[in-house]
Automatic annotation (TrEMBL):
Its main location: mitochondrion. It comes from the Eukaryota. It comes from Equus przewalskii (Przewalski's horse). This is Sideroflexin-4 isoform X1. The keyword Transmembrane applies.
Length: 313
């Protein structure tokens, strides 16, 4: 069985345990691991089938799990490209979220931040989604291009409405971009991973044996991930706007107007630094689903009451 799959199935964790686990996996040092170190760690886990994450007596086992879980895709057993590993998510997206929420006087200055943000998140969703179904490279490219274009359009829509109709009300000027960012980020996950509900993803028993492909499991995996993204970007966009609103009313801001940018950027990074592991921890990495909720052909193929599937990140 793929070591990462074995880990997520056997280590049934609470939300707090998943949060602490993700804090380790999001360590930036995981971005600079050499291929040689990763391969050695994988070999150690493959030769120690009973190795547990809680085997505190062996530091090598703990380090091997950390390297494997943070760099290798559980479905394909392939290395995740460095810019799209979970540890790279915060450094790439936090500045983009900050730039996407800046007040501007013309729409052109918002195009690049929006395109950059949705290009990265779309690629991240496709690469880190469930990869157990058959797909051709050109299908992912065409799908990603369409998702990027549509997400960018809807991401720019609130700014266009503000400039076109001179919406100066504080509620619409500040709340509208946050609402759109939250909704579009969730829909971006659903659209970029739309093959999973339509083609089905692998469902396994507790031993890792593949029982079949389920569209219902694919739907649940995408829905859960989209929910976690909405929580992540909604909170990360809302809290800095609230802080900025009250900061503008202080005397310090009147003396140093430029400090607003520093505060807002710092607040965005701090909030996202907390919310990224929180959002990744809301749902288990390997989800469980009642066999009775799946397709009839899968129910007839096993006597297991529950099956497992890779939710993706």
């Amino acid at each position: 069985m793929e070591p990462n799959v074995r880990f997520w199935i056997t280590e049934r964790q609470s939300f707090v345990q998943r949060f602490l686990q993700w804090m380790e996996l999001l360590d930036p040092t995981n971005l600079v691991l050499s291929i040689e170190k990763i391969e050695k760690s994988r070999q150690l886990l493959l030769t120690n089938q009973d190795a547990s994450r809680h085997d505190v007596e062996d530091q090598r086992i703990q380090e091997a799990w950390k390297r494997s879980l943070s760099t290798v895709h559980p479905d394909s057993s392939k290395l995740i490209p460095v810019p799209f590993r979970p540890a790279a998510f915060l450094p790439f997206t936090a500045p983009m979220v900050f730039l996407s929420l800046l007040s501007v006087k013309n729409l052109k200055s918002m195009i690049l931040p929006q395109v950059s943000f949705y290009t990265y998140t779309t690629a991240f969703n496709i690469i880190n989604g469930n990869a157990s179904y058959n797909r051709q490279p050109y299908e992912s490219i065409l799908l990603g291009t369409g998702v990027i274009a549509s997400s960018t359009f809807f991401g720019l829509l609130p700014r266009f409405l503000q400039l076109r109709f001179s919406l100066n009300n504080i509620l619409t000027r500040k709340a509208l971009p946050v609402v759109f960012l939250t909704q579009v980020s969730a829909v971006n996950v659903i659209a970029s991973r739309s093959f999973e509900p339509s083609r089905g993803i692998e469902v396994m028993d507790k031993e890792g044996n593949v029982i079949g492909y389920s569209r219902k499991a694919g739907t649940k995996a995408v829905k859960d991930t989209a929910t976690s993204r909405a929580v992540l970007f909604g909170t990360s966009a809302f809290i800095p706007e609230v802080f900025s609103y009250f900061f503008k009313r202080t005397q310090f801001f009147q003396q140093y107007p430029w400090s607003l940018w520093t505060l807002k950027l710092s607040c965005t990074i701090l909030v996202m630094g907390l919310m990224v592991p929180v959002s990744f921890s809301i749902f288990p990495q390997t989800g469980q689903i009642q066999c009775s909720m799946l397709e009839k052909e899968i129910q007839s193929a096993t006597q297991e009451p529950e099956l497992f599937y890779n939710r993706g990140v």
